[in-house]
Amino acid sequence: MAKQTGIISFTGKLGNLIGYRRNGQYYLRTMPETVRQTAATRHASRDFGIASRKGKLVRQAVTPHLDISRDGSLVNRLNKTLISAGKSQLQMLNGFRFNRHAGVENFFCQQPMMSPAGVVTIPAQTLRPEGTATHLEVKVIAVRVSFLERRITGSRTASVMIGMDTRFSDIELDVALPGKGTLLVIVQVRSFNGPLATANRRFVAADILAVVPPAVKKQRVTVIPDVKKVPRYKEARGKKYNTTLCTPHTVLLHQRE
Asked: Residue 108 sits in which domain range?
């Protein structure tokens, strides 16, 4: 490992050198002549690549709708969760926090719920005091992502402002989003003091509320009935004709005999 001391620093590959940054400093290392990988290493590398692609799609679909500051650990945390989820356990994303410093459960005594029809309900309650906050903004984000086609197929949002000083009735936010791909529903909460949103990361949250995989179409199975094998002409000669066989081929054999 060598430290870059020139005027121009770089990251990435340059010939047989690799530049990288660590703790604000730039370093160099040479590429290995050969890379030895075990089967387990190749498998882990493949899983990481798949999770990275999925994570990038999720971030591209969700983060444009978020109103919270960027979390520097988001990429690694999301990739780690997707690696654990594998191909068929995307529901493990339920509860994932886009802001690691706070969760939606911190703001409500009774947590938001989503119906099969795509309606998010915040049960009636009185909000907990949150510092100097006078209001809470609740924003629900629904996105559809096709991991198979590697594209975002749709998005929809709905929001409401809730006063901190009064008990409110059930609030329903409709974010039904039909279409192709996996449905992700995110609840974002921000504290407001009058017209101003707080910049304190402990008073904002954005969590995944629900993950709905795409519906799997049932494949129609066509059953081909068994066909009784007709003996060849030489095998059929000298044998008693089976009148139960009525195929043109057997009739021709009978005529020849």
From this structure: 39-212
Q: Is residue 218 part of a domain?
A: no
- 18-45 tens-digit pLDDT: 888 887 888 888 887 777 778 888 888 8
Alpha-carbon Rg for the chain, nearest whole angstrom, is 31
H or E segment to which residue 85 belongs: helix 74-85
Name residues whose C-beta falls within 8 Å of residue 143's C-beta, 6 or more positions apart in sequence.
Answer: 61, 62, 65, 152, 154, 155, 156, 177, 183, 184, 186
Per-chain mean pLDDT for the chain: 86
pTM of the predicted protein model: 0.71
Q: Tens digit of pLDDT for each residue in 51-61?
A: 999 999 999 99
Looking at the domain assignment, is residue 48 inside a domain?
A: yes
* Residue found under tokens 């444009």: 64
Domain count, the chain: 3
